[in-house]
Amino acid sequence: MRETTDRKKNLAEQITRGKKKAEKKEIENEFEKIDKIIEDDSTFLYEVSSVFPFQVFPDKVIIYPTKIVVVHKSLFFKNIFPMLVRDINTVTVTRGLVFASMRFEIRSYEENPGIINFLWPEHASKAESIIIGLLSAVRDRGIDVTKLPPEKA
User: Fold this and answer.
1) How far is C-alpha 67 from the geometric centre of its chain's CA atoms?
2) Cα–Cα distances in Å, from 145 out to 34, 127, 142?
3) CA atoms 58, 103, 47, 79: torsion sign
4) Which residues contact 14 (CB under 8 A, 6 or more apart)?
5) What is the CA radius of gyration of the chain?
6) Chain centroid to CA 128: how far?
7) Considering the chain, what is the average pLDDT of its residues?
8) For residues 70 and 50, is the Cβ–Cβ distance under 8 A?
9) How far apart are CA 133 and CA 115, in angstroms?
10) pLDDT at 147 over 50
11) Which residues in the chain belong to E strands, given as ranges?
12) How many CB atoms within 10 Å of residue 14?
């Protein structure tokens, strides 16, 4: 009788160890997925900055495969506004005689990032076309752009 209870305890301990190993392996897999996401998101596709003499601390728009980052700079701080591509409703480029400005509308934020002024029109138009292409790929067609090589994205 005692032998069967010892066997049951042994079996229960083996099952517990097996579950712990499986849980540990699952946790390691999740960390690997997070590392892969960070690695995939580290290369940017395009960057556009406002022109220096007209804006002492130039603003930037940095385009990654899955997100857009707007950076507003001032003397003592910079405001970084990241937004996922799937959350962007629209991007608008307004062209003037010499410069262009860019504005974003985002669906899940209380307030949109500020307008980025004093951009070169060619750079702003290229950034807009890349963002609209990403919007179309991610939202309309369901393409996972993180799996594309950077030169194709």
Assistant:
1) 3
2) 16, 17, 9
3) positive
4) none
5) 24
6) 17
7) 81
8) no
9) 21
10) yes
11) 46-49, 60-63, 67-73, 78-84, 88-95, 100-106, 116-119
12) 10
In angstroms, the CA 138 to CA 68 distance is 13
> Which letter does DSSP use for residue 43 in this model?
S
Query: In degrees rounded to 5, what are phi and psi of residue 139?
Result: -85, -50
As given in the structure block, the two tokens for residue 51 are: 């022109």
Q: What is the mean pLDDT of residues 135-145?
A: 80
Q: How far apart are CA 94 and CA 114, in angstroms?
A: 14
Helix and strand tally (H, E) in the chain?
2, 7
Highest mean pLDDT among 27-31, 39-43, 105-109: 105-109
Q: Name the burial class of residue 21, with classes exposed (0-12), middle (13-18) and buried (19+) by CB atoms within 10 angstroms of its CB.
A: exposed
**Cβ atoms within 10 Å, residue 148:** 13
Classified as helix, coil or strand, 78 is: strand
